[in-house]
Amino acid sequence: MNIIVTGILLSGTYALVALGLTLQYGVARIMNLSNGETLVAACFVAFWLYTGFAINPLVGMLIIAPAAFAINWGIYAFALQPLVKRAKNRGQLEVDSILATFGLLFLMQGLMILFFGGEYRSYTFLAERFDIFGNAYGLNRVVAFVAAAIIAVGLWFFLYRTRRGTALRAVAVDPTSANLVAIDVARTAAFAFALGGALTACGGALLSTFYTFNASMGVVFTMKALIIVIMGGVGDVRGAVLAALILGVSETFVASVIDPGLTLAATYGLFILVLLFRPQGIFGRAQT
């Protein structure tokens, strides 16, 4: 039971990061390899706000999320939209976006090292005991999970109960058909990319409350987000949440029962199994 609860608590932040990439890839068609750097940047900003100005990280998200939204909109408009316009098909866009965001990864990583240094950082926030089923857990982890769950529910409500959310889902399914029903596909894609960046930043802010981080760890989280997105089915919010839950519990099990050093190996092993037996993902549809 301890392993399951710990894994579930970890899966909350994983889900937010993966939901961000789900929107960027599923709607905007951008495979953003710098997604993890957005998370790490949010960790540093939350750290800076808390240690420098005593701003609660949960309150700090009200600053971090809009800033991440605006920055990611700018990145899409100036660096990625020209690639979208020149791409003749989705395959070319994916290749071009991978190359562009791969370069952006190193740019963001270099800037973070310049401003924050390469050492590991952490801070103490709600480092108190919280009992669940008779076992003790960090209150910071519980609060981070609850906040992530609230944000995920809010995203679901937005996607399935609002006109803008319906437009996002329509573009994700078929941009050409969406354009025929008067949906501004270019603007919707930019909005999806920016919203994805904001979600990832929220995940970073929450992760910073209980995780030790440094400027070079973004690649690991990008890969985890990519694995979750593919496991759940590209563009499927439900699948991303369920895959994040599976990944969180699996990593916790391996770290607790076998060896903490094998968590990444277990993650990739699970990914390979999905590719072999259900390449379309948990909720994805097989190609015909």
UniProtKB/TrEMBL annotation:
Keywords: Amino-acid transport, Cell membrane, Membrane, Transmembrane, Transmembrane helix, Transport. One of its GO terms (molecular function) is transmembrane transporter activity. GO terms for biological process: amino acid transport. InterPro entries: ABC_transp_permease, BCAA_transport_permease. It is found in: Cell membrane. It is a multi-pass membrane protein. The chain crosses the membrane at residues 6-27, 39-55, 61-79, 99-118, 138-159, 189-213, 225-247, 253-277. The keyword Repressor does not apply. Belongs to the binding-protein-dependent transport system permease family. LivHM subfamily. This is Branched-chain amino acid ABC transporter permease. GO terms for cellular component: plasma membrane. CDD domains: TM_PBP1_LivH_like. The keyword Membrane applies. It holds the Pfam family BPD_transp_2. Its main location: membrane. It comes from Aquibium carbonis.
